[in-house]
Amino acid sequence: MTLIATLPQNLPNEMAQYQEEQLVPDLYRKMEARKTLMCPYVYNWKSTPEQGLMRFADYPRYSTGYAAHFRTFALVTEAHMLKPFADRVAATEAFLWASVNYLAEKGPEMQSVIEQATTSFARQDSMVIQWQLDTTQKDQVWFEGYAASNKPGAATGFPVVAYDQAKPYRKQIPYLQAYRPVTKVRKPKAYVLPQTYHRVAELLRMNKVVLKPIKKDTILEVRATYLEQVKHYPAPYEGHFYHNQLNERYEVQEIQFYKGDYLIPLNRQPARVLAYLIHVLEPRADDSFFRWNYFDGILMQKEYFSAYLFEELAAGILKKDPELKRDFEQKKEEDEDFAGNQYQQLNFIYKRSPYYEKSHLRYPVFRIE
């Protein structure tokens, strides 16, 4: 049996410590008592297990990462597909036995840890929303495997890995399981979501998030986020064009909201939904709604200019804005392509003029700080 215990970083500190120091070690002991081998999920760091394994990062797109954001201990088992079916069933039965027995022994203790962790997380003023594997830190884990070597592929002749079952081994191998924080966000007082994003509102409600419709048209001071240099995988991934790169820029703005738009105050939320709520609404989070294309409309510029009309207007804009004129002239001197391209020059002025649409690239979920 191989095991994925949810990434500790998905959990509050109290739950993470309990999982790593008590829950998982005891499950290994119980499996050993049933004479069933278990090891971490075989996720190779390089080409073979002998060179090291990596801890699998179960983002919220996976069942365990999702459950962890609701303060639930979450585990995935994989009985290897190439093992005999009877062995796979027996290993799964052994794990179910180990899990049920652990719950029978420690259920109230686990519940207490969950309640304590949920309460303490609700009091925190920030949350890490991105993690990255730290390849400088390596632990060791016992592993039973077979010696690997390369042999010519039967079809192409290129080397492929082969495992020699006449050369088994049992030894400690490198295990990379440390993840370092990449992005941390401060919790806002509230988010504001325009009602036009009804699918997002529906998903939030399904996950027990409290949405308060705004009662009348109003102007609110918010922090707006602009998403720039957005890139996505060149081919569909899980039926979406997942946005894997983006830069953020922030502005404090006064924005008109309308009756029926949603205010999402964090102090009115059930404590167990806070991590989920922050993760899906902060665009940089690995599995935010933005990453999965729920807000792609903001990436399309809708308003442009006609050169024959904008030329004189652009000249007036430069005359009134010495700083813009200085930047414009400097760019012409430094960029040969720009200097010879009318559209680029007019677009440079247009994007820094009052006529450029503020909603282009502006993320439509706003923060009240």
What does this protein structure show overall?
Helix 1 (13-33) runs antiparallel to helix 3, helix 6 packs across helix 7 and helix 6 (307-320) packs across helix 9. It is built from nine helices and 14 strands. It is 34% helix and 28% strand. The chain has 369 residues and is an alpha+beta fold. It has helices spanning 13-33, 63-68, 85-123, 198-206, 274-281, 307-320, 322-334, 336-339, 342-351; strands spanning 2-5, 39-40, 53-54, 75-78, 126-133, 139-152, 159-176, 179-186, 190-193, 212-213, 218-232, 243-257, 262-265, 366-368.
Total helices: the number is: 9
Ranges with pLDDT <50 over ≥5 residues?
Answer: none
Strand content: 25-35%
Distance between the termini: 47 Å
Total DSSP E strands: 14
Shape: globular
If strands are numbered along the chain, what order do they take across the biggest sheet? 10-13-9-14
**What is the average per-residue confidence, as pLDDT, rounded to a whole number?**
95
Structural class: alpha+beta
**Gyration radius, rounded:** 27 Å
Largest sheet: 4 strands, antiparallel
Order of helices and strands: EHEEHEHEEEEEHEEEEHHHHHE
Residues in helices, as a percent range: 25-40%
